[in-house]
Design brief:
The chain has 17 helices and 20 strands. It has 459 residues and is α/β, with parallel strands linked by helices. The protein has three domains: 14-101, 3-Layer(aba) Sandwich (Rossmann fold), CATH 3.40.50; 105-317, UDP-N-acetylmuramoyl-L-alanine:D-glutamate ligase (3-Layer(aba) Sandwich), CATH 3.40.1190; 326-457, Mur ligase, C-terminal domain (Protein-Tyrosine Phosphatase, Chain A, Alpha-Beta Complex), CATH 3.90.190. The strands form four sheets. It has a six-stranded parallel sheet with strand order 7-8-6-9-10-11, covered by helices on one side. The longest helix has 16 residues, at 288-303. It is globular.
């Protein structure tokens, strides 16, 4: 299934990269390798490792500012997904005829690899890494990139894989126009990042469905048939690709896709492929949400005709990624779980659904317009205390003050863990699952999770 990405953008001239993180530096290296005149600009400070790389590659850059005369003369702009559309420089660029795209779209022009692309509000990283693990276990020449790992552009420049598994956020998809996913996976759509979409859920749904734009008849679209927003979105978003739904609600055989039968077996059925069957109790990742993740990853593997034995071995042995329901320690009979990657309410719902009472929940941070109502029943039935982190947690107090006996604020992650350790009893779970962005107290969700793990190990 070749993925020839037609070139809709300049193939020479001046390329300006906005943002000097993993994505931006990778794009700069690929552009330089392809003979462009490259300049990288970042409004913030660049990490030392990235500065050293740019210097070694002899790529000019600036940090701490955007010099307009060095940017507005570009033939092509590659924008970091983290830069919001309302940023003044982006607004200024939109008034010009300079094309502005993502690193993913830029890199896709220079590879004919098969692209397995995964998006959704929750479970993207787990499904991406599980899919990558299955493909790697099956012996394929596969890379993993996008919102995870080493940048796609850098791998296209220096590694050359036959298959790439790409985790794509809505922000990335917003700057992708002619990109084509050979296998597109849409896991779920729940309210998230609505501040970037004018608090309009339809705009966010439309962003997620961009993953199927430009698909052709020989491609595959894998999606959750149980997700209300996806089902509604399908009414206004069509694709020529073969549709492969996955479900847990319809226990009868479906013509093609994945479902759970009455014997609790995962059935994956694609025309002209050997049917895959596996007892869900054998999956290494347990919980309803992980059955969905395995269904999606399994469909992608089966679409590529990977062996059932390789799929099953990987699904039985896969270990979850850091910061996503990551077991940290069991101290005094109390289990500590790091779910720092849970930056929205739906992710916290999945986390709470995965554990038995009693849970001491550490949550809070930069609220993105969260609606906490969906958590209320689980908090009532499973959570014995909530410990808030972050600068302003008034909305968490308002949401749950009548649903749990204890809600307290903390002064630091160390303080939060210390409080949790005094509240939790043998058999309880202390769960860091914030539902919020991290950048008030922490560099990013990884830093938040690492501080949690350090604090637990210091008990």
């Amino acid at each position: 299934m070749p993925n020839i990405q037609h070139s809709y953008y300049p193939q020479s001239g001046r390329v300006v990269i906005l943002g000097g993180g993993e994505s931006g530096v990778g794009a700069a290296i690929l552009a330089s390798d392809k003979g462009f005149d490259v300049f990288l600009s970042d409004m913030g400070a660049l990490a030392e490792a990235y500065k050293e790389t740019l210097q070694q590659e002899q790529i000019p850059f600036e940090e701490g500012q955007h010099t307009e005369e060095l940017i507005l003369n570009a033939d092509l702009v590659i924008k970091s997904p983290g830069i919001p559309e309302k940023a003044p420089l982006i607004q200024q660029l939109r008034k010009t005829n300079i094309p502005m795209i993502s690193e993913i779209e830029f890199a896709a022009q220079y590879t004919d690899a098969t692209l397995v692309c995964i998006t959704g509000s929750n479970g993207k990283s787990t499904t991406t890494m599980l899919t990558y693990d299955i493909f790697r276990h099956a012996g394929t020449n596969v890379g993993v990139a996008g919102n995870i790992g080493q940048s796609f552009a850098l791998q296209v420049a220096r590694e050359k894989h036959d298959i790439y598994v790409l985790e794509l956020s809505s922000f990335m998809l917003d700057d992708m126009h002619h990109f084509r996913a050979n296998i597109a996976i849409l896991l779920n759509i729940t309210p998230d990042h609505l501040d970037r979409y004018n608090y309009d859920m339809n705009l966010y749904v439309d962003s997620k469905f961009r993953i199927i734009q430009n698909q052709q008849a020989e491609d595959y679209f894998i999606y959750c048939a149980d997700d209300e927003e996806i089902v509604k979105g399908l009414e206004r978003h069509q694709t020529a690709a073969m549709a492969l739904p996955f479900t847990q609600e319809d226990t009868t055989a479906i013509a093609q896709g994945a479902y759970i039968d009455e014997q609790k077996k995962l059935i994956i059925n694609i025309p002209k492929r050997e049917t895959f069957t596996m007892n869900i109790e054998e999956l290494s990742l347990q919980g309803k949400h992980n059955v969905y993740n395995n269904s999606a990853a399994g469909l992608a593997a089966k679409a590529q005709q990977l062996r059932n034995s390789a799929m099953k071995e990987s699904m039985q042995s896969y270990v979850n990624i850091a910061h996503r329901l990551e077991h940290v320690a069991c101290i005094g009979g109390v289990t500590y779980i790091n779910d720092s990657k849970a930056t929205n309410v739906n992710s916290v719902w999945y986390a709470l659904e995965s554990f038995s009472p009693d849970i001491v929940l550490i949550m809070g941070g930069v609220d993105k317009g969260n609606d906490y109502d969906m958590l209320r029943d689980l908090v009532k039935s499973k959570v014995k205390a909530i410990i808030c982190i972050g600068k302003n947690n008034g909305r968490i107090h308002e949401a749950f003050e009548s649903d749990t006996e204890v809600i307290v604020n903390s002064a630091s992650m160390g303080d939060a863990v210390e409080i949790a350790s005094h509240i939790a009893k043998k058999g309880d779970t202390v769960l860091l699952s914030p539902a919020c962005a991290s950048f008030d107290w922490f560099k990013n969700y990884e830093d938040r999770g690492d501080q949690f793990k350090d604090a637990v190990m210091a008990l």
